[in-house]
Design a protein that fits this description.
With 252 residues, this protein is of the alpha/beta class. It folds into two domains: 5-70, no CATH class; 72-245, Rossmann fold (3-Layer(aba) Sandwich), CATH 3.40.50. The chain is built from nine helices and eight strands. The chain has helices at 46-71, 91-105, 122-132, 140-149, 160-169, 184-200, 213-219, 222-231, 243-251; strands at residues 5-13, 18-25, 29-36, 111-116, 136-139, 173-176, 205-209, 232-237. A five-stranded parallel beta sheet has the order 5-6-7-4-8, with helices on both faces. It has a three-stranded antiparallel beta sheet with strand order 1-2-3, with no helix packed on it. β6, α6 (184-200) and β7 (205-209) form a beta-alpha-beta unit. α2 runs parallel beside α3 and α6 crosses α8. The longest helix has 26 residues, at 46-71. It starts with a strand and ends with a helix. 24% of the residues are buried.
Length: 252
């Protein structure tokens, strides 16, 4: 806060035991404020005080926003990202952006599958969809960890059944990095169950991973693939990663 120069006026208000003074602020100019008798602090510019208060409110609102994003699983990297900030690398990416934005705005009971190369923006778009719908974003490895944490009957806060019901019934769910992890059999059973249940309950589900469609068909059982074909949209991010371009730009 800037220190303001003071010029006392002749006004006097006994009820406040103070005087009306001129406050000269380098930023906002001259304003008249009340200054209490005996106060050792110089009077403060009311506009500066209002700006500080508004700044504190914005900071608190930003902290609440970040806290909420962490709660729904969004990684810090994507706190300030959205469909608007996604930069398509080619015409196909631009078309995908429009299609996925439309699906995120009106998710309905539909499956969305994004697969293809690493560094093509799948996590960016998946996170943006979760934020837009106030849904839950997770990766397969973290979902698997949460499920396995239920196996300890003494320390677990929820049973495996309760955890699975949570993922099967929440209004909007994104599971990213479905290709990660080692136990393919467990992954097949879990993802297939979540897909089937969300299909039956009319709950949208977005899946994303650095894989090809052939691999997806080995992980999801045939009944899920049939449901995906009926009520799903798949997007093949086949182009090269944008990350090397970012490194080149940073090096300039």
């Amino acid at each position: 806060m800037r220190t303001c120069a003071i010029k006392q006026s002749k006004g006097y208000i006994p009820a406040f035991h103070g005087k009306e003074v001129e406050c000269v602020c380098e930023k906002h100019g001259v304003s008249r404020v009340m200054h209490l008798d005996g106060s050792t602090k110089p009077p403060e510019c009311p506009v500066c005080m209002q700006e500080q208060e508004e700044k504190k409110k914005r900071e608190k609102a930003e902290e609440r926003r970040k806290k909420h994003l962490r709660k729904i699983g969004i990684r810090d990297k994507y706190f300030n990202e959205s469909f608007i900030t996604y930069k398509p690398q080619n015409e196909k990416a631009a078309q995908y952006l429009q299609d996925l934005l439309a699906l995120a705005k009106n998710p309905r009971d539909i499956f969305v599958l994004m697969y293809g190369n690493s560094g093509t923006g799948k996590s960016h778009l998946a996170s943006s969809a979760a934020i837009l719908n106030n849904g839950i974003y997770t990766t397969w490895e973290f979902l698997d960890l949460r499920l396995r944490s239920t196996y300890n009957s003494y320390a677990a806060k929820k049973t495996e059944y309760q955890m699975m019901m949570y993922y099967c019934t929440i209004p909007f769910l994104v599971i990213d990095e479905i290709e990660k992890g080692k136990n393919e059999d467990a992954k097949m059973r879990c993802l297939s169950l979540i897909c089937r249940e969300r299909y039956e309950r009319n709950r949208p589900l977005w899946l994303a991973g650095n894989c090809n469609y052939k691999w997806v068909k080995t992980v999801l059982d045939s009944s899920v693939i049939d449901r995906l074909k009926q009520k799903g949209k798949s997007f093949n991010f086949f182009w090269e990663s944008y990350r090397p371009k970012l490194r080149e730009a940073e090096a300039i």
